[in-house]
Design goal:
By secondary structure, the protein is an alpha/beta fold. It has 21 helices and 11 strands. The chain has 3 domains: about 250 residues, Rossmann fold, CATH 3.40.50; about 90 residues, no CATH class; about 80 residues, no CATH class.
Length: about 500
């Protein structure tokens, strides 16, 4: 095993040391010193994930689905024009952070199960952000940031999202981004390009996931709509421009996901009543929303109930839910589980866990180094020369950043590498998830023996490639990064064996 696997300070420890030294260098500048010290605290916080996209992409709806509660407003009110942070806390609280003045607490208002915000006389232009503290298991590892719609008719509204994701004077407050789109448009591509700051490890691809957030619309709300949507997502994933802008593309029926995770007993009873009627009559009713909610459309369900159902489920959700009840899902819990699975939300949550949560320390280190790098460039100090060298050393030498850079490079269409080798390298570098089983293409319950066998074989493959006289320098360097990843996995297996 090479000397590169010897014990060394972790990336997080090295970055903490850099931040402390930088805060000391800039101690005479209270604003900068505070920003640097805050970044130290940020290393210990849950990952910050921004939910972004154009107007009507379904950002707040998807956020509610991820949390499992209706805490993000989904109407077109003034609160959807404000950047809003959602974080786990012991008790609920909503705090308005103004652009000028002191923060103030807003009243907690729940209407029909939905959390609503009252800015109490403030306009969206007056508000820097809303901070929603909410007890939620889903928020323990991830703080979600809901952003106003991009390409809004109001340039001020769009600017609030841009200021969060691609600020001119500092790194983004978000560690990672879920970007929602209905279809891939030029506007989406331009915006994805705009917040890919390349100053640290040009691999922003790793901290971005794209979501087809109203996926059921792609298939016109048919029962097989999600099949069509997943095919479109797969096609987008294969497009070179998309591959260089985001880690993957996932199809999610956001409205169905939100409703499934917040399903009410009364709604289930109404769905069951619908499912018990004539299938042909129900199919006829569900040809359009207007027909479904018409006054005399159903003999026993009031029009008000049907109107609420179509708002909560959409036509696709109603077709799917009633069909599943007919197939035997006669209990709310079982129906909820199947609707969530069919919505694509489970796939998205798996992707978030493997691509974001497992890379938490690397993504946070990246955010921190962006701040230090920018500070050193914009506020040069003679005494910071050694610190600048340390930042450069971490960026060039930390294997985690080498992995990110190579992952981005592997997505370039003109890379001289076979499809099989590219796929193998991407997986071993953590492109399908940073956990060891994911890197080795094994199941989560793979035993140590299977892990060791797989990583030993991978190490041999890439060592041959690194040492081959047919490999040019660039190819050999790429292979050595993969070798180092394999060596790291072997070292961890050996440590685990000793500790057990």
């Amino acid at each position: 095993m090479s000397s590169s696997t010897r014990a060394a300070p972790s990336l997080s420890a090295a970055v903490r040391a850099v931040l402390r030294r930088a805060a000391e260098v800039y101690r005479d500048n209270p604003t900068t010193a505070t920003q640097l010290r805050d970044q130290i605290d940020r290393l210990d916080e849950p990952l910050r994930v921004a939910v972004a996209g154009k107007v009507k992409a379904g950002k707040s709806t998807l956020l509610n689905a991820l949390v499992g509660e209706q805490i993000a407003p989904t109407d077109a009110g003034e609160c959807t024009q404000v950047v809003t942070w959602y974080r786990d806390a012991a008790s609920p609280r909503v705090t308005l952070m103004p652009r000028t003045g002191v923060p103030r607490q807003l009243p907690l208002i729940r209407t029909d199960g939905r959390l609503e915000f009252d800015l109490r006389g403030s306009t969206p232009d007056d508000v820097e952000r809303l901070l929603v503290d909410w007890p939620s298991r889903s928020l323990r590892t991830t703080t979600l940031i809901d952003t106003p719609g991009i390409a809004s008719l109001s340039t001020q509204v769009s600017a609030r999202s841009v200021a969060l994701l691609a600020p001119d004077d500092r790194p983004s407050d978000a560690d990672a981004v879920i970007y929602l789109m209905r279809h891939l448009h030029a506007t989406d591509v331009r915006f994805l390009e705009s917040f890919h700051d390349q100053a640290v490890a040009p691999a922003a691809v790793v901290n971005t996931i794209a979501v087809l957030s109203r996926a059921d619309e792609i298939g016109a709300g048919r029962l097989d709509a999600m099949v069509s949507a997943r095919q479109v997502a797969r096609r987008y994933r294969g497009e070179p421009k998309v591959r260089r802008l985001c880690q993957t593309v996932v199809a999610v029926a956001g409205l169905l996901a939100q409703t499934a995770r917040t399903l009410r007993q009364a709604e289930f009873s109404a769905l069951r009543e619908l499912a018990q009627g004539s299938r042909s009559e129900l199919d006829s009713l569900l040809l359009s929303a207007d027909r479904f909610v018409a006054a005399q459309a159903h003999p026993t369900l009031p029009a008000q109930t049907r109107n609420a159902l179509v708002e909560r489920f959409g036509l696709f959700g109603l077709r799917l839910a009633t069909n599943l009840i007919r197939q035997g899902h006669h209990e709310p819990a079982g129906l909820t589980e199947e609707l969530v699975r069919r919505s694509g939300l489970d796939e998205l949550r798996t992707v978030l866990a493997t691509q974001f949560t497992e890379r938490r320390d690397v993504l946070k280190a990246r955010s921190a180094l962006l701040l230090v790098d920018r500070t050193l460039r914009e506020q040069p100090r003679a005494e910071a020369h050694e610190l600048a060298g340390e930042v450069e050393r971490i960026l060039a030498g930390a294997h985690e950043f080498r992995e990110l850079r190579l992952l981005a490079e592997l997505r370039a269409p003109d890379l001289a590498l076979s499809a099989d080798a590219r796929s193998d390298a991407e997986r071993l570098l953590g492109g399908h998830g940073a956990a060891m089983p994911n890197r080795l293409g094994l199941g989560p319950d793979a035993d140590p023996g299977a892990l060791r066998e797989a990583v030993t074989a991978a190490l041999a493959r890439w060592q041959r490639r690194a040492e081959s006289p047919l490999s040019d320098r660039a190819a050999a360097d790429r292979a050595r990064v993969v070798v180092r990843s394999c060596e790291g996995m072997l070292a961890r297996l050996s440590r685990d064996q000793v500790s057990s």
